[in-house]
């Protein structure tokens, strides 16, 4: 197994990680920003006020994109397992 194969596998793994986590992170960032603006405008500084909306919206987002995330991870894992014999030749 040469160095270029290891670098390629690591690059693919990081790219899949970014793709799978991006929807949840983007939604959490957007909801946190909106709640933060509302808290700053109303001077309400309650920690649970920012946590509960993020939790609910992330659960909804996971319900919407969860099947795509699982499919992406399963496809990547299958391709990785199929490449194992060629890695050691």
Concise structural overview:
This protein has 89 residues and is an all-alpha fold. Helix content is 91%, strand content 0%.
3D structure, described in words:
The chain is built from 2 helices and no strands. It has one domain (3-87). It has 89 residues and is mainly α. Helices cover 91% and strands 0% of the residues. The chain has helices at 3-42, 47-87. The mean pLDDT is 91. Helix 1 packs antiparallel against helix 2.
Q: Strand portion, in percent?
A: under 5%
Number of helices: 2
The low-confidence parts are none
How much is the average pLDDT? 91
Share of helix, binned: over 70%
Q: Between the first and last Cα atoms, what is the distance in angstroms?
A: 7 Å
Q: How many strands? A: 0
Shape: elongated
What is the total domain count? Answer: 1
Return the structural class: mainly alpha
User: H/E order of the elements?
Assistant: HH
What's the main sheet like? none
What value does the Rg take, in angstroms? 19 Å
